[in-house]
Prior knowledge:
This protein is of the alpha+beta class. The protein has helices spanning about 15-25, 55-75, and strands spanning about 1-5, 30-40, 45-50, 80. Helix 1 crosses helix 2. The two termini are about 20 Å apart.
Amino acid sequence: xxxxxxxxxxxxxxxxxxxxxxxxxxxxxxRLEHVRVRPTDTGLEAVLFVRAASDTDAVIGVQHLLxxxxxxxxxxxxxxxxxxxxx
Length: 87
């Protein structure tokens, strides 16, 4: 989940920008196959599909991707918030 900072409303026009930010920060080790970003009532939801040998590898890869993309996402007015994932 990508939440707007400073109480601003999420803009559906930001979906393509955040989609591209996730792709540009994906490295081959993440094995990212598909990204979808869509507006929700509270922010933007990013759904990431990765090819991984296990759920643990998928979670680790996505976490690394989010760590790399966090700065640019923040610069566009969003914060990264996600539920705890089982590892």
